[in-house]
Amino acid sequence: MTGFVCESVGFRYPTADGWITALSEVSLEARGHEIVSVVGPSGCGKTTLLKLVAGLLQPTSGSIRFTPGENGDRPRNALVFQDHGVFPWLKVVDNVAFGLEMQGVGPAERRARAMEFLQRIGLADFADRHPHELSVGMRQRVGIARAYVSQHPILLLDEPFGALDAQTRLLLQEELLGIWQEDQKLALFVTHDIEEAILLGDRVLVMSGRPGTVVEEIPVPLPRPRALAAPDRPEITEVKWHIWRHLEKEARRQLSIPG
Ligand code: ADP
Ligand code: MG
Predict the structure, then answer these.
(1) Is 256 inside any structural domain?
(2) Domain check: are 82 and 23 in the same one?
(3) Which of 41, 80, 115, 151 is in the most buried spot, having the most CB atoms within 10 Å?
(4) Whether residues 102 and 137 fall in one domain
(5) Which tens digits make up the pLDDT trace of 105-123?
(6) Ligand 1 neighbourhood includes 43 CB (under 6 angstroms)
(7) Closest Cα to residue 6, out of 208, 243, 188?
(8) What CATH number corresponds to the domain at position 40?
(9) What residue's CA is closest to ligand 1, atom 16?
(10) 71/197: higher pLDDT
């Protein structure tokens, strides 16, 4: 089963003024077809954690072990960022096909697979447009489409809906849930939004302020497929406030609000 284990992972950035410890003693396990939400205050090292899992950074302490894929290699992953995720000079269809190009899939098949996915999510009419002709929300859908079309077993999402207005965000959350339901992958979903973490995740990992570490893991008591109305259920409200109590202190500190 695809998965990975982080064991006491730490990460420090070298800066002109010395080291900044972004993550300390992060231990977590993710495998199979689950969505693991990671929620934490801004600056606690969420993006750093995703980059470590993606292999873009190497832990400065501890280790990350992957369950090998079918060919014995480290399983591949697709990353979706909050912004800058699509290439402005590429058409929508080529943006979606980009991951396949990296895998050596030929141009005709790339285009066919990208078009098929665009069709499925209702973006086919925009295939030949460039990202600047699309709304921010549509651009994020292109980023998610690219990640899905690449067919990598691990999906890493870094606040993909963080820059969107509330209504757009609801629709995109619902869309992602629908896509995932049809083609389930292991996903690490990073967000600073507690409700979003609950709505999407099978469990929520709560991180402390910097240096970030996982302070609690909370299972989400919601069945799948999920409906958007679910967060109104009382047990969800309870989970939400429970997580907020973890994050409140750090949020107040950052804003200098006593409490
Ligand atoms: P988050 O995604 O949770 O907001 P990040 O992982 O981006 O947090 O950053 C964690 C901490 O590391 C922050 O304090 C940030 O300022 C610092 N940091 C991030 N990237 C760098 C870098 N390239 N050089 C130095 N410090 C960095
Ligand atoms: Mg971040």
Answers:
(1) no
(2) no
(3) 80
(4) yes
(5) 999 999 999 999 999 999 9
(6) yes
(7) 188
(8) 3.40.50.300
(9) 43
(10) 197
Number of Cα atoms under 13 Å in the Cβ half of residue 169: 16
Number of domains in the chain: 2
**Nearest ligand to residue 44 Cα:** 1
CA–CA distances in Å: residue 124 to residues 53, 88, 121, 150, 255: 32, 18, 8, 18, 44
Whether the Cβ atoms of residue 24 and residue 74 lie closer than 8 Å to each other: no
Q: Which tens digits make up the pLDDT trace of 127-137?
A: 999 999 999 99
Q: Is 89 in the pocket of ligand 1 (CB under 6 A)?
A: no
- pTM attached to this predicted model: 0.94
Q: Which two tokens stand for residue 213?
A: 């570490």
Asked whether the beta carbons of 114 and 93 are under 8 A apart, the reply is: yes
Check whether residue 87 and residue 124 sit in a common domain.
Answer: yes
Contacts of 73 (CB under 8 A, 6+ apart): none
24 and 56 in one domain?
A: yes
254 lines ligand 1 (CB under 6 A): no
Q: The domain containing residue 133 runs over which residues? A: 76-152
User: What is the widest separation between alpha-carbon atoms in the chain?
Assistant: 60
